[in-house]
Amino acid sequence: MYIDKTTIIGAIIGIVIFRIIDNLNHGATIRWDRVAIIGNWILVIALIWLIFIVIKRLSNKPKTKLKIRKPFNLQSLRIEAQKEFSEYNIIERHGQILICETDIRGEFRELVFVRLNTNSPKRVEHKEHFLVASYPYIPSGAEMRKDFSGLYTKDKNSKISDLNLLFDRAKKEFTEFNVLKRNDRIIILEREKLGQIAQELVFIRIVSEQKIIRLGSDGKTLIARYPYVPSKEEMRQDFSQSLNQY
Question: Does pLDDT of 188 surpass 50?
Answer without folding.
Answer: yes
